[in-house]
Structures are given as structure tokens and as C-alpha cells.
């Protein structure tokens, strides 16, 4: 924004201030002055500040806001409109509290029509101010609108209503003007003669269903003010900023008006700016007709109280480097800063109380919402450079949390297994309906929040394959976003992808492709950190979990379950995904909810299920092998049978190993069942087992297994 030094001098007493000194003050307070230029406008010398402000300081897009900021930094009085003059403006119009329409987009609005106006050249003083702000003067009505926008930061919709309503406009004419979302194919020509084809939902001001103003952006060429204008419609309003932002993005238009609407219009200045605009139009167009202004002013709804704790100011800002240390030695210093900025303070009568209730001024009510915002206001005026900018150094080291210890173990284990860690951006392109859309993305490629880490891993996989790297083992630990019960929640995930020709027993050999069981084995080694039983459940759409399953092959996927919690998913990537990225090899992936994993890990430790690692002497005695075949229903998992065998032999330490080596379905096997063969290895640590001893134990295991699972032993 370009700021005129002469205009500032009309608002605050800076006659003896150095412009460069004021520039430094503004920059330190967070409103950077990028350039200072000297100009001559119609014979009057001026100094122009070229300034930028942060998105949360919408008040600094107006001369009033900047003057108020300089006054606060220098403890000066500032003038907006004299109360006497504001009373004159108010008396010139009859303000009627009336909700003309029930539109959820509205917050506050003022609207009226002024008849019998004349189009003339605006005064020289106004032209100078507009040229200083980088705006070319056109005529008295348009210039008044631009003047009010620059001065108050309040864009107004001013249209020539006489072109669409030739007769004298009245209350009924105003009722025909309303804001409405239009979405059908409409040809709209703006005041810059540029044509826009509206084929998406856009908010516009319409007259009898014809759009005449793209709300907050630009008017139609049909209603621009020119020499033939006799009646004007003026509207000042506050809308949901997302509505204007959406219009601007869909149409690719950025105007001075839309920028201010997107930042947020000041509630405090809306009425004053609107009344001044109407008064100036009457004054500079020789209109003498008294008019009604219709309003749905509900400013009281925006008032709020925020609790401020004095003690937190020092905790957040750190030590005061000034000699008197007054920001902390006297708590009234912080209060006086807030009061000078227009905040209302409700103090506690107790002298021992360190808390007060603070009500922000209406000009800042949209961006002052938390205690930290109040602390920033205090620091901004007191001076950020008056606080120590070094982080305290502590010699003592705090122990790592259980969460961090487990996270480090997982990261180390994955790297030992040959995985490479990558980091992807948490914002992605919205390519499916499950992704969470961002209302105001900076670029279309980052228009949604990720709900899975695997999408990013697949992109990395594709880039590596395209560059000739056919051996992929990568993982990422990061945050994802899930819509649960209409609330967006954040959680940490651990995800990985592996595949390609990664198995070689010799440097001479060509790498062999990994299969499902080998990939699952890598995940089993990772999960052995927990030292507890993991259930590998067949994927079923009825299972309760929050993982994205569209990326996985439905017939070759499994859900990881610990302590009855579904903590993750593992499986082969869906063939459709592989086809999209032009890969003809099997790729496997896993995704684990770290928060659920940590919860299960802590639960097993609490229940003392977590087994301590013990070292044992390796047995040199021979191993005796026995095979066992069972006929079981298909819904009984092999994992369940192996677990039951272990449980049935837990009273002795002779059963060392169970291998599954055969499965058969078909002839001589009842429909819905299958034959499964296991190989059991028996070994003692202190003697050579005899055949009878092993046979007896083997029979006991078979009998107990048949009874516990109701299956047939062959």
C-alpha cells in the first residue's frame, strides 16, 4: 500500500517527526516499509511510503489504521472524523434498522440510493490523495468510493442504478438488489471491458436475477458511473471472507477491493466510512435530497472477552533488556498499552490478581482471538527489540518421553532393514473426494490436506523407477488429517513402500523380485519391537479402521490388530494404481497409526505382558521332527492354529518351532474346509529326546488342538 506523508499529517501530529524514523518504527512493529519516494503532485511536494503488512493486520490497509499504528507507537493523538462532523453525517440520513434479505453470507450491511446527482470532477485535494495512493482519478462518484477505500479500508459497491431503473429509485428498487450465488453459464463484462464466463458458483449482486456486480471485486460495465448517471446505489457490507476469496480465485481477479475483503473489513469503521461516503456524494454532486439508509447493524454480536495472565507475558516474551524493566516491574504498563490501542480492560479488584478480562476494539475483533494475540500486541508497541532474542541454554537434559523413545526405535529398526527415510509436503493436490480441501490454497498443487502418507511415497517410487532405480525400500513418519464426525483431526502415521528386485544372494546374480511373504516378514521384524502378539486379520470392509484402503489390493491386504485395536494395514498396491504409474512389478506398502501403536505398546507394558529379552545357551542336542495335518474351516486362520499349538505346549519347553508347509482344497475335502500341514520341531536343552517322549507330547498337542478349535486331525 502507498501511504502519503501529507495525508498522515492531517490525521496525527507528526510535524516534527523524521519520515525515516517513523519508517523504522513501523518496520519493527511488523509493517514493513519497502521504499520511500519523494513526489510532486499538482505542485505539492509529498513523501510516499510503499508498505506491506502481514495478512492478519487488515487494519493496516487503510490510512486510518496506519495513522492509528503510528500514534500508538509514539503515544500521539489521532483524528478520524470529528464527533461533531459524524453527528452531521448521521443527521443527514435516516438510518432504518431493517433486514432486507435473509442471507447467511451477510454479517453487517448498509445500503441506500441517492437521486438527482451530478457527475463532475472531484476536488483537487481528493485527486492528490488518490494519486499518492497510486489510483487514477476519474469522476467525483468513483473517486469518493476509492477515497473511502484508501482512507478507511472499506470498499463500497457504488453502481449507476439509473441505467437499470430509469425512474426515480425508492425502497422497492433497493429490495430488487440482493446478493445471490450464480452458477449457470453467464457472460459478464467488467468495468475494465474484460469478459468473464461464469460457469461455477459465484457470489454476485443481482438486480431482477441479472448480475451487475461480482461481489467485492468489480462492477458490470452496464452500471459503471459516467456523465449520464443520475442515481447511484451505495452498499457497504461485511461478508464471510471466504466468499470473496472464492470469487477472486475462480475468476483469477485481484483488485484493491478484493484484497481488503479477503483480509477482513473492520467492523468499527464500517458505519463511519459509509456515512462519510454518502455525505461526500451529496456534497460534491449538489444533491439536496434527504435519503434513508437501510441497515442490519449487529455490531454487538462481535464483542468478546479474552483472559490475559500477566505472568504469561514474561514466559512468552522472555527477559526485558531495558534498564528499568518496566514491562514486568509494573503490570499497569501492559494494561496502559492495551488501553491506548483501544482495548477495554475489566480489572480484578484484588491486588494479588494477575488476570484481567480484555475486550478487543471492533477494528481488531477478527484477528484478536487468543491470549497470545494480546501478548503480541503488547510486544509490538513496547518494541520487540527490547526483549532478549536468545533461547535460554539449559545444561540439564530431560529424559526422552516414551513416545520419542519408541519413535526412535522404529526409525532405527527400519533403517537397519534397509529402508530410506523420506519427507514429503503435507499439502497435496485434491485428486479424490476423500482428501480434505483447503479453502484458500496458495497453488492448486497444494489444495488439500493429505489423509495418507502412501500417496507421497508412490510419487517418490515413480520418480525413482523413471530414473532407473528398480530397488525401492522407503518410509516416512509424518502427520495426516482425518475427518472424524465432521471434525478434522491430526494423527501421526508410519508408512512404507518396498518392491522391485531387491533380493540377491551374490553380486553375480540378477536381483529377484520380493514376494508378499518376504515383504510381510520385514514388517514383522519391525513390529517385534513391541514384543507382543500381532493379529494379521484378512481385509474386510466391515472392520473398524480409518486407513485408506483404495490404494490396496482387496484380496492381498491384511489389517494389523493389537489388543483388539486395528493399528495398521499391509498389502500389495492395487493393480489400478500400478497401471496409472506404468509399473509392471508387485509393490507392497504398509501404513500404521503411530498413536494407536504407542497406546498398545504402553498398555502391554502396563499389563506386564511386555516380555524381557533373555539370553539362553544354544542347544547342541538333536532336533526331532513331527508332521501334523488338520482339516479346518476356511474362516480359521493359520495364525490362530499356530497360536493354539504354542499355547497347548507352553507347560514344557520342548516345542521350538512350527512351520506351515502345505495347504490343500479339493477332492476328499469337505466344501468350505481345507487341509493344512504343519511341521513341529522338538528339542531339549539338557538331553537327547527319545521317540516315545516326543510322540506322547505330540499326541497331547493334537488332542488339545482338536478340542479347542473343533477341527479334525488327520
Describe the structure.
The chain has 714 residues and is an alpha+beta fold. It has five domains: 2-80, Phenylalanyl-tRNA Synthetase, Chain B, domain 1 (2-Layer Sandwich), CATH 3.30.56; 85-301, Phenylalanyl-tRNA Synthetase, Chain B, domain 3; 303-386, 2-Layer Sandwich (Phenylalanyl-tRNA Synthetase, Chain B, domain 1); 402-606, BirA Bifunctional Protein, domain 2 (2-Layer Sandwich); 624-713, Ferrodoxin-fold anticodon-binding domain (Alpha-Beta Plaits). It is built from 21 helices and 32 strands. Strands 18, 22, 23, 24, 25, 26, 27 and 28 form an eight-stranded mixed β-sheet that branches. The chain has a five-stranded mixed β-sheet with strand order 4-14-5-13-6. Strands 7-10-11-12 form a four-stranded antiparallel β-sheet. A hairpin with a 2-residue loop joins β10 and β11. The chain starts with a strand and ends with a strand.
Question: What would the keywords be for this entry?
Answer:
single chain; 714 residues; alpha+beta; Phenylalanyl-tRNA Synthetase, Chain B, domain 1; Phenylalanyl-tRNA Synthetase, Chain B, domain 3; 5 domains; 8-stranded mixed β-sheet; 5-stranded mixed β-sheet; elongated
